[in-house]
Specification:
Elements (H helix, E strand, L loop, with lengths): L1 H9 L24 H10 L10 H17 L3 H15 L3 E7 L4 H13 L3 E3 L3 H9 L14 E6 L4 H8 L5 E8 L2 E4 H8 L3 H43 L1
Antiparallel strand pairs: 1-3, 1-4, 2-3, 4-5
Helix pairs in contact: 4-6, 7-8
Pfam families: Ribosomal_L10
Protein name: Large ribosomal subunit protein uL10m
Keywords: Ribonucleoprotein, Ribosomal protein
Length: about 240
């Protein structure tokens, strides 16, 4: 406050009596223009009056224009989108991973390790990947896609081998994926990898055997009941 007072003291502030002015201030309203001036103003006025757009509407219009422009694809993006579509058509297994900061050498090393097992690690543009997935049966996977996601695809269903291979890669975090026509979370993918063909076959054989035994017992039940009823009826007739 003291510093502000010092600044004010250093600035020259003239008094009201020291300023040149009339004897009295003119506080009257300006006189209206003449008839000729008013006619000229009316004739030369624009037909379309400029309408002031509120700031909120300006932001909305700008965002809408930006969104429509972002949906338009150039030739390179159309080419890459077609490549992603072809890859998804021939894919039976697609897992989504979130990757931590990695170097180019680490990325190439992971791609080589996965390629030796028959898997393919690839990156794709977020907008293009969401557009391609929206046209398939895996459209709900778009919720797991972000800027830091990569994808591992395969034409086989060797989920256990894939998880064993990625277990040695701590910078890849499993988010979920799709196996055939089923969308699975991280826990679902892990549970699917623990299933073995022998266990599934034994369970299927057990279910089929139990169903056949139940069906045969139901069919024999009616026959046995009919025989018992006829025998009881014959006994009653002989007694009469």
């Amino acid at each position: 406050m003291a510093a502000l007072c010092n600044v004010r003291n250093k600035i020259f502030q003239p008094l009201f009596s020291q300023v040149r002015h009339r004897k009295s201030f003119d506080v009257r309203k300006p006189p209206p223009p003449s008839l000729i001036h008013r006619l000229i103003n009316e004739v030369t006025a624009p037909l379309e009056v400029y309408r002031r757009i509120p700031m909120a509407d300006q932001c909305y219009i700008g965002k809408l224009a930006q969104y429509t422009s972002s949906k338009q694809l150039n030739r390179y993006e159309e080419f890459m989108l077609e490549q992603i579509r072809k890859r998804l058509k021939s894919t039976r297994l697609l897992l989504i991973y979130q990757y931590l900061p990695i170097t180019v050498a680490e990325k190439k090393n992971m791609q080589y390790q996965l390629s030796t097992q028959g898997f393919r690690l690839f990156h794709a543009n977020t907008k293009l990947m969401k557009t391609a997935l929206a046209e398939t049966r895996w459209a709900n996977l778009c919720q797991n896609i972000s800027q830091f996601t990569c994808y591992i695809s395969s034409e086989s269903l060797k989920v256990s081998d894939l998880l064993k291979c990625t277990h040695t890669m701590p910078k890849l975090i499993l988010l979920g994926g799709a196996i055939e026509n089923h969308l699975l979370t991280r826990d679902g993918v892990v549970a699917f990898s623990k299933l073995s063909l022998e266990n599934v076959q034994s369970e299927l054989v057990g279910l089929l055997a139990s169903n056949s035994a139940t069906a045969s017992s139901l069919l024999d039940h009616h026959q046995r009941q009919l025989v018992a009823n006829l025998k009881q009826l014959s006994i009653q007739d002989s007694q009469d």
